[in-house]
Specification:
alpha+beta; 2 domains; 5-stranded antiparallel sheet; two-stranded antiparallel sheet; 6 helices; about 40% helix; about 20% strand; transmembrane; membrane; transmembrane helix
Length: about 210
């Protein structure tokens, strides 16, 4: 009986250890961004405006920053129906830059738009594709000029921000859609730099 009691106790302890191990592994398997992004889920939770120094300092993402501005009028960054979309979803700020891609001659107009909350950023992101494809709305160059039809555009939503980039040739002409460097530039700038560095740093409070 004594041995049976000790055996049952050992099984109970083993079961507890297995359960704790499962919980620890499950927690480690969660996407860390999902937890930290709660701090940038809305402008109410993340009230400090973005700055040029935070978003597009010299050498941002390994590119040459030719010009960078932070503006409270979001409509200067877009054309057509995207203007009403940004106004309707509470855009309060557009931080934009012109970046030169080394050894390619390409120019990138990149920006971060500050929306009211995650739902607003996602809603605008959902509208971008349809508006760009129909020509009813798009993004502008830093000069305010509308980009030519066929210009590659990339965008992402994270937290209450919409990230985008527009890639052109050195004279502002569209880049051929088959150019393999386009995907690399878009991923590097929107995912690796703006999302996984700039916004991740803000989300973590660092």
């Amino acid at each position: 009986m004594h041995l049976l009691t000790r055996g049952l106790a050992a099984l109970i302890v083993l079961g507890i250890c297995v359960m704790l191990g499962f919980l620890i592994v499950s927690d480690e398997g969660r996407d860390p961004a999902a937890a930290t992004d709660r701090t940038i889920a809305s402008r109410a939770a993340d009230p400090s405006p973005l700055t040029v120094a935070e978003t597009f300092p010299a050498g941002a993402a390994g590119y040459q920053v030719e010009k960078a501005v932070a503006e409270t009028d979001c409509t200067v960054a877009v054309t057509g129906a995207l203007r009403s979309e940004l106004s309707g979803y509470g855009c309060s700020q557009a931080v934009r830059a012109t970046l030169a891609v080394p050894d390619s001659g390409y120019l990138v107009t990149a920006g971060v738009l500050n929306l009211a909350d995650t739902q607003s950023a996602n809603a605008v992101a959902d509208r971008v594709r349809a508006l760009v494809e129909t020509g009813d709305g798009s993004f502008t160059a830093m000069t305010g000029a509308q980009i030519p039809s066929g210009t590659p555009v990339g965008w992402r939503a994270r937290g209450h921000y919409l990230l985008y980039c527009v890639i052109t040739g050195p004279a502002g002409e569209p880049v051929p859609s088959g150019e393999p460097l386009l995907g690399q530039i878009t991923s590097n700038l929107l995912d690796d730099y703006l999302s996984d560095l700039v916004l991740a740093r803000r989300a973590s409070g660092s």
